[in-house]
């Protein structure tokens, strides 16, 4: 089995590559990644010498380059993680989100049509469903929940999902889509809530909580997400969407307090800053379908996963220190100064 994994130098894609090389040692994995600010080749160092692994620096929007790679590798499957993934950046500059997330998805699927494929899998997000109100804890996102996006990021992901389903109906492309809730774990880029708070805590820097911090996210340990995708690409039904989430809803403020506690830092570091524009209130996945159809269940409890994650950041300063001392500094200044 030859699998192209796009965006494999990013957070979830790299965890997925490690998972696949371990669980399927006879598979060949080809990582295609543009290495944007969010892609980090050092993350893939542990597998660079694996004879079943190949890294190719390429933009998923580069049609010629993508077709050439298909001619070299004739993949059986494509799993598309490559995306601009940060909501705050999408609010500052939507264009690159439309380019990578929508045009890039179409380019990959065109290559799949041209050269043939057993499965094209689109890694999507629960954010395509918009948000749920805080006062209706009985409501969850199912696969039938209407698409109703809030941010340029989620709109671009929803646009891609619609294209994927259209390529299935129109051209018969064998696709699946997974829509997962917020992930956390090793190699998470420090612009996102959990790693940002851990690293700021370690530096005794203010912890910038947007608004009151009452927004709820449904957190899933990254390895559980990787297992879900592995199941879907092997046993999932073509043309179907699968929601992935572990019923682990937490308020942002409670997560930040927990990180302070685990690291022995005072809650006085918490600083409430101007809220995100269009900030989604609550995400909550109903994972009944993937549980009933594919037998998937999350394995890592949040209490354990967050401890493991904090420990990983403590043990792997070599990974994150070069990131936060580079252009990330300018990003942080721009996004958080005067907020
Ligand atoms: P990430 O930002 O950490 O990584 C994205 C990767 O894609 C990087 O390696 C980057 O270099 C690469 N990339 C970006 N543009 C590219 C392009 N044009 N061509 C080739 N490569 C490109 O993102 P992540 O958090 O790992 O998310 C991966 C996928 O999972 C995304 O599609 C995202 O929408 C989805 N998702 C993320 C979460 C989450 O909590 N992080 C939850 C659900 C779904
Ligand atoms: P984030 O990790 O950006 O993921 P998403 O917006 O895709 O859910 O943010 C998670 C939550 O944390 C979200 O409600 C916004 C909030 N947040 C903060 O309060 N402060 C921050 O500095 C960041 C990055 C996020």
Structural description of this entry:
The protein is α/β, with parallel strands linked by helices. It has a domain at 2-185 and 219-248 and 279-301: Rossmann fold. It has twelve helices and 13 strands. The protein has helices spanning 11-23, 63-73, 87-92, 95-115, 152-171, 193-202, 222-235, 252-263, 288-294, 302-315, 317-324, 328-336, and strands at 2-6, 28-33, 53-57, 77-80, 119-125, 175-180, 183-184, 207-210, 216-218, 220-221, 241-244, 249-251, 270-273. Strands 3-2-1-4-5-6-11 form a seven-stranded parallel beta sheet, with helices on both faces. It has a two-stranded parallel sheet with strand order 7-10. A two-stranded parallel ribbon has the order 8-13. Helix 1 packs across helix 7 (222-235), helix 4 packs parallel to helix 5 (152-171) and helix 6 runs parallel beside helix 8. The longest helix is centred in the N-terminal third of the chain and has 21 residues, at 95-115. The radius of gyration is 19 Å and the shape is globular. The termini are far apart. It binds nicotinamide-adenine-dinucleotide and thymidine-5'-diphosphate. Nicotinamide-adenine-dinucleotide binds next to helix 1, helix 4 and strand 5. Thymidine-5'-diphosphate (TYD) is lined by residues 87, 182, 192-193, 196, 208-210, 215, 217, 252, 276.
């Amino acid at each position: 089995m030859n699998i192209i994994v796009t965006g494999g130098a990013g957070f979830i894609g790299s965890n997925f590559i490690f998972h696949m090389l371990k669980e399927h040692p006879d598979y060949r994995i080809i990582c295609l990644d543009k290495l944007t600010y969010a892609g980090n080749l050092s993350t893939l160092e542990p597998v660079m010498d694996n004879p079943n692994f190949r890294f190719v620096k390429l933009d998923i929007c580069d049609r010629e380059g993508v077709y050439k790679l298909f001619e070299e590798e004739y993949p059986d499957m494509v799993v598309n993680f490559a995306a601009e993934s940060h909501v705050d950046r999408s609010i500052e500059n939507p264009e690159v989100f439309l380019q990578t997330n929508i045009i890039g998805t179409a380019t990959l699927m065109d290559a799949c049509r041209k050269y043939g494929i057993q499965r094209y899998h689109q890694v999507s997000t629960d954010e395509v469903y918009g948000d749920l109100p805080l006062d209706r804890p009985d409501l969850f996102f199912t696969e039938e929940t209407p698409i109703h996006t809030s941010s340029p990021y989620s709109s671009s992901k929803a646009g891609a999902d619609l294209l994927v389903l259209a390529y299935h109906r129109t051209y018969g492309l064998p696709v699946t889509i997974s829509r997962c809730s917020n992930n956390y774990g090793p190699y998470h880029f420090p612009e996102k809530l959990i790693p940002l708070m851990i690293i700021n805590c370690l530096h005794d820097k203010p912890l910038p909580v947007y608004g009151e911090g009452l927004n709820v996210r449904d957190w899933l340990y990254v390895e559980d997400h990787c297992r879900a995708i592995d199941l879907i690409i092997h046993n999932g039904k073509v043309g179907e969407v699968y929601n992935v989430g572990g019923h682990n809803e937490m308020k942002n403020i409670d997560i930040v307090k927990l990180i302070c506690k685990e690291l022995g830092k005072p809650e006085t570091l918490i600083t409430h800053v101007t809220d995100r524009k269009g900030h989604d209130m609550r995400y909550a996945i109903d994972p009944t379908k993937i549980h009933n159809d594919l037998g998937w269940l999350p394995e890592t409890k949040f209490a354990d996963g967050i401890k493991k994650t904090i420990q990983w950041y403590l043990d792997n300063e070599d990974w994150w220190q070069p990131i936060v001392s580079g252009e990330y500094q300018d990003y942080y200044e721009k996004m958080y100064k005067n907020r």
